[in-house]
Every structure is written in C-alpha cells, then in structure tokens.
Amino acid sequence: MNDSQITISLPDSSTRSLPSGATAADLAADIGPGLAKAAVAARVNGELADLRRALPDGASVAIVTRKDSDPDALYVLRHSAAHALATAVRKLYPEAGIGFGPPIEEGFYYDFEVPEPFTPEDIETIQAEMVKVIEADDPFARRDVDRSEAKALFADDPLKLERLEEIPDDETISVYENGPFLDLCRGPHAPSTGEIQHFKLLHAAGAYWRGDEKRQMLQRIYGTAFYTSQALDEYVTRLEEARKRDHRRLGQELDLFSIQEDIGPGLVCWHPKGARLQLELRRWIEDLLTARKYEFVFTPHISSEALFRKSGHLPNYAENMYPSMQGDGEEGAFRVKPMNCPGHTTIYAARPRSYRDLPIRLSEIANVYRYERSGTLHGLLRVRMLTMDDGHVFCTPEQVEPEIFTCLELVDIVMSTLGLEYRFDLSTRPDGEKRIGDDELWDRAEEALHQALDRAELEYGLDEGGGAFYGPKIDIKFKDAIGREWQGATIQLDFNLPERFDLEYVGADNQTHRPVMIHRAIFGTLERFTGVLIEHFAGAFPPWLAPVQVRVLPITDAHEEGARAVLDRLESEGYRVELDSRSDTLGYRIRDGELQKVPYLLVVGEREIEAGTVAVRARGADKKQVIMPVDDFVDRLRERVESKSLQN
RNA sequence: GCUGGCGUAGCUCAACCGGUAGAGCGUCGGAUUUGUAAUCCGGAGGUUGUGGGUUCGAGUCCCACCGCCAGCUCCA
User: Does nucleic acid strand B have an atom less than 7 angstroms from the CB of A219?
Assistant: First the structure.
C-alpha cells in the first residue's frame, strides 16, 4: 500500500482501500450505487460526519442512509431542517438575530431574536418560504475557520458572537453555508437542503436565551421532519391519538377528578372514582412498607416558621412556599408544610436513640402544599397540593446501602406490577450557593448512591447539578402520553439535615454519632402517579385498581331482581359493583359500560337467571361474551384482583 | 413568573362585515322492555370567565384582571 491510499474498515469488519482524500460519499459510491444514492451522512470512528468530509486513514466508517428508523439519519435531517428554517426566517426577517437551532428527540427548533413574536400566520408564511429554500436545493458547505475570521463573519450577530466566545481555543470552529445562509455550526448536515422533503412547522413559543430567565426572551419555532410522508403522517396521527389519553381529558370523561377555578389553580378535587384509585394505591404501599418494617406517623399540616428556617427550606424555597400565617401574640408565624422532612426529623429527635434502634423508618402519606409558579401547573402532573408517599430512614452509614436496595426493590415492585416504563437518573450536587454542607459530605453521599446503583446492576443517567440542596438523589423518570418526562420515585441521601437538627444516636462504643438520613418516595406523589397511570392505561385500569370493577346489566325490568342478586353476591365478596337498570336498550348500556372502561360487564337475562350463570363481557376481550356460573366469575375476579393482574 | 394562543349550556362545538345566542351528547319527563357499542318523542338548561370602556347596539372591537393550553424557566 502506498501513501496515496487509505484503508477504511466497515461495520462488517471488512476493509477497503481508497485514494487519499476520499470522502464518505466516495466510499459509499465505491461500495455500490444504491448505497451512494441512499447515503445522507456517515459515522466516522463513532462520530457523525458529513458525507463530503475527507476520511482519515484507518477510520472505521458506517454509512448512514435515509431511514426514518435510524436516529442518526433523522438527526442529520432535522439539523439541516433547522438551518433551512433559519434560512427562511432570515429571508423574511433580514434583521432577525439567530440563536441555537438543534435537532431534538422528535424534531427540531430554532431560536430567533425578533422585535415582534411570530403569529400563527407568520409560521405559515415561514413554512411556505422554507419550501422555496428546499426547492433551491443548495448544498450545505462546511468550512473550518479561525477565530478572527469567525468574528468577522458574525460581526453583526451578537448571539453568535457570544457563543463563539465560549468555544475553547483547541476546538475547531466550523461554519456551514447553504445558499444565502451562513451559520456557526458543528454539523453534520445532509448534503443539501433538497433532502428535507417531509417537514412541518408545529408551533412557536418564547424561550429564554441560554435558558436563563434573566436574559432576553427569544422566539422559538418548533418543527419536525422525516424522510417519508408516511412517517410524518404517522407522527401527526400519533400525537392526536396520544391526546385522547391525556389524563386531564380522561379525568373529565371518567369523572375521576376536577380542578376548579373556585377552589384555585393546581388544587385537585378527587371525585369518588378518582379517590378510589388513590385509596387502592395507598393501601398497597402501606402494606408493602409495613412488611419492610416502616412505621407510620402523622405530622401537622402547619408548623412554626422557625422549623423551616432551621431546615434550610425557607431560605432556599421561600418563593415556592405559601405565605406566612402570622400568629396573634407571641407565638410567631406559621407555614403550611411544603414537605415532611423537618417533622420526621423532629420525631426522631424527640428521644435519645441507640444504635440498636436503627434503622428507624418513618413513613407518612401526607398532603403538602407548594406554591408552584402558575405557568408550571399541569393537570395532575404538577399541582399545588400534593400527596406524597413520603418516608425517611434514619440509619448508620453502614446501613445506607441495604436501605437503598429496599427502596429500589419497592420501585421495581410498583413499576413492574403496573407495567410502567421508566429510567433512573443520578442527580448530583447543585451549584455553590444552592447547596448546604461541605464538599466532603457531598463526596460521600454521591459515592454511596453510585455504588448502590452499580451493585444493583441498574443502568442510569447522570443529571449533573440536579440534586436537592441537602443531598444527591436517585430519581426515576417516566413519560406522559405525548412523551414529556416527569419525575416519579425519588431516593435522596442526606448527611446535612442530621447536622442541622443535631441528630444523634449512641453507638456500641457509648459515644454519640450522627445518623444518615434517606428521604424517599416510591409513587412520588399520588397526584402525579395517578395522572401517569391514567395515561398509561388510557383509563382502562386493571381490575384491582378499577374504580368500578363490574357493572351488571339486566336485559329487561323482569331481570332486575336476578341482576341484583348477582350484584349483592359480588358486593358481599368485597368488590365494587354497579347496577345499570336504565330503561335504555342493552346495546346502549353496553356501549356506555365500554366507554366508561369498566373491566367486566355482566349481562343477566332469563337464561342466566335460570342457570345461575352470567354472560361476561370482559373489556377488550376477543370473545365478546363468555357464559359462566356466577361462582366461576367470582373466582376469576378474585384471582385477578388478588394477584393485581394486568389482565381482566 | 415569562412569550404566544385560547375562554359561548355539565361536555364537544356553532353564531358572515358588531344587529340581541344555536346544535349534538349528557341531564330531566314520557313512551318503549330491549340478548351484546347509540330506541323514539318532549322539556329544562347560558349576565357568552370577571370588571371596565367604545357604540344606537358587543359573544364579536379596546383595556385590566382571572383561568386554561403550548413552550421557556423552576421543581425540596
């Protein structure tokens, strides 16, 4: 092999020789014309790159082809679509400042600094202009520049100049040019704007520059793009379908809860059926915790303000706490509690503790109140009165790991029983002023959580700076119907509050020691958890959880007595049953039962009464009805409920 | 909190350029007595989110406030 040749290895571990200076496009063409045609980018030594970049000798290269199923391919397409959007906006608004324009999970956005926010009509105009940009089919040309040239290129673009300042000296500065538009950008991009065939601008919204609410607000336009019109249509349809599962909509349709202006924003009223969901979840977690030696306590809804000052919550979260209630005389001010830690801490401190007592595990399903900013409220998922399945474990440093394992076990039981998908995040210490305690304590706490997760062999993400002010935490995150992520269970390690409250225990050495505190919630809050469950099940809850488990439908008035006998039987067994003896047709009542997502509809007519059977219509079953003796149905229901089966 | 959009009956929605609010579902009454996803007839139900303003006249235009939705920021 001579100097003018380079060797490239391919994903199937074969190698190929190409002339020096060959690009990924050349490689694709060398492999075959079909691949050359389908190629949009390449993965070079693991990094996504333009097709037109020269390949280094010895690189391992995978060609990325136009495919809606390939995240790399979509990333490149959407990044290019963001540039095409900015191109269109600059044509219509030459003075617009340009911020960032990255691809995101389901599409892309671009931020603009314009004097007037975009109206929905503006978005249509921009979309039409974007079509022209695409029709022009200008290539995306990359150029590496030095800092002074970059400064000159973006001289009248303060947002880009600010970004430029942050690029370290050892990093290559690159720009991409497509037709009239030039952007500071790391790339990569599709070969040309013509690649973007199937796209849609979705909506515009304000977004702070650099994500900092103290800085100016830019106007962000969101859009999405795919390689086929079919995938784009599917995406739009999927969003519409997802909206039908929205817990706010189902909460109304199934009469589960309401949030009313007369009561106040973020304050949930649970209707009987929604309250039943909560009661079943509470009973479940109470049993699980009791079996793991947790003890239940109750602490007051209001406490002296001094308590929250001592804990550090007041200094850190005053903005998000309900205002002070001023006492009449010398008593001083009170606050409605935003969390339970100080209360549980106070119970711990109420008497001397021995190492023999530890761990002490206190649990309380408690309502707490947080004055969340108005713009953040969201149905059941972000509320101002929240019901936490809260708990605090006070233990020795050696006991931390087994206690965390118990928490992780509980999370697993709850999530797998319900079939919920979730992921773990390890959230580490926040920035300087936002945390208490010295770094050594933080090191120990973070290390303990890392180890626990590693030993439990769990995969987890890292949320740098996402911890609580008193300690790092393991969070579990799940997604709502349209893919927004929310925090559920949380396990927080805390060496700081025990210091602040001067918690102690007497060790075997007859010396006093500081206990470690674990804050944990398995559901998180019952509001959010129920909201996620409503969307997860689309309102069709498994029998053990369903507010109404069975509805009995007599065919005519003549069968009402027989139907009532079935109802009485089921009620005496402890099940939640309704009788629908309305004078509407059977078809109408079946439809209504289906729409209300009742797991079992039992039809009772002449034949059933005589034979002592019921005609069972199980929600979602292939067979519309199955005739079985009442006893058999009771057995089936019992089995499903007791096992918390997801089947009905 | 910020930016934008929206707010009409319990729910979903309609009402041209400003001309005095209407439908379906639900609910109630009556008829019907039904065998597996909507039986028929009739009635009731609205200070058009709230408060101001412009106008002969405001659901419609203007202002303020409240709430909701999307996004941003925040989330012990």
Answer: yes
